[in-house]
TrEMBL record:
Protein name: acylphosphatase
Catalytic residues identified in the record: R23, N41
Family under the similarity heading: Belongs to the acylphosphatase family.
Catalytic activity: an acyl phosphate + H2O = a carboxylate + phosphate + H(+)
Keywords assigned by UniProt, alphabetized: Hydrolase
Every Acylphosphatase-like domain range: 8-92
A Pfam match: Acylphosphatase
GO molecular function: acylphosphatase activity
Amino acid sequence: MFREKEIRKHLIFSGRVQGVGFRYRAMHIAQMLGLTGWVKNRWDGKVEMEVQGKRDEIGKMISMLYQQRFIWIEDIEEKEIPAEKESSFSIH
């Protein structure tokens, strides 16, 4: 049986993404979808995230973040990076 390979993405979100519950919602969504990684606020008002899992699930997570109240994502810088061994999603 073919098993979809896990990927890891490094994402930087800009817009109204700090002070609106973004990191906690991201963690909740990641846990619900079985994704791993981390999320943290940056000094420049953006939010940085590394997320790992199936490509479709990562896409679903990003879509769900766009739908959250009070969060307004203006832009996402995105690049694929090597997968890591980890077992949870955390807030840094």
